[in-house]
Structure formats: structure tokens, C-alpha cells
Prior knowledge:
Radius of gyration: 70 Å
Oligomer: single chain
Structural class: mainly alpha
Order of helices and strands: HHHH
Distance between the termini: 169 Å
Amino acid sequence: MITPLDIQNQEFTRGVRGYKPEEVDTFLDLITTDMERLIEENNNLKEQVRALSAELERYRSTEGMVLDTLEAAKALMGDISASAEKRAEILLKNAELDADRITREAREYAERLHKENENLRNRFNAFRTKYKALLESELERFDTLSKELFDDKGMEDLKSILESKTENLSYERKDDREEGVDFTDKTIFNFRAGSEK
């Protein structure tokens, strides 16, 4: 390939009726300048092609990495989905086991409460029966005592005791007045003493 230096150093032989050397040199200078510009553009374009090729390679490798990443993500999503399903199954089984356990405990607790209720009811019935029997026996005893205490013969005895005590009291009061003694205490004492006789 011809270079700008080759164009500048080119020597032409002179003929009898040739071109003017100044015009040829000027034209060669223009061609050299254009040639240098074209070579520089060509070099720039080659550099751009190299850069774009490198970038394209990088994109191709990145595309491969992206595809690999997508495949890995798909596989990971599959694993996560399978793991989530297994975990959901485990959680469901645990929930069912807990529900069964809670139901069983509640049933056992209800049975225990029922037995305790029956036991308390039986104890209450036994207590009521004993208490009723106790009250009835006390009422019978009270009736017997009241009959003995308030029958006609007992009342007559009580009246005669009271009358004799009243006569004794009137004599004692008279004596006490003369001596200045408080007869109330003595009367009560004598009444009690008389009742004890």
C-alpha cells in the first residue's frame, strides 16, 4: 500500500512537454493530506471496530452469564418451590398434630371435670342427707325436751317453786332493807340457789 511519504518522495522524469512541476507538487500535497486523513480515519475506524468487537465479546460472555444465571435462578426457584411445599406439608402436619393433642387434652379435661362434678354432687348429697338426719334428730330431741319441760305436771312444779321463792324473797327484802343491803343481787342469788335445790 502506498503511503503519504511515498507520494511526497516520488520523483518524476521530465519530458519535453510535461506538466508544470509546481502544479504537480501542489496536487501531490493535497493527495498526501487527504491520504493522511483517510489513513487516520481508517485507523480510528479499526480502533472502533476492535473496541466494538471486544464489547461484543464481552456482551456475548455476559449473555452466557445471564443465561447461566437465569438457568440457576430457575433451578433455585424450583428448589425453593419444592422446599416451600415440603415446609407447608410439615407445618400442616404439625398443626394437625397440635389440633389433635389440644382436642384430646380438652376431652380429658372435660372428663376430669365431669368426674369431679359427680364426686362433688355425691359428697353434697351425702352431706345433705347427714345434715338432714342431724336436724331431724335435733328436732325430735327438742320436741321431747319441750314436752317434758312444758307438760302440765312440770308447769305446776315450776309454779310452786316460784311461789315459794317469792315468799322467801319478801322476807329477805325486809331484812335487807333494815340492814341497807342491795337485795337485787341477793334475790338473784337466792333464786338461783333455790332453783338449784
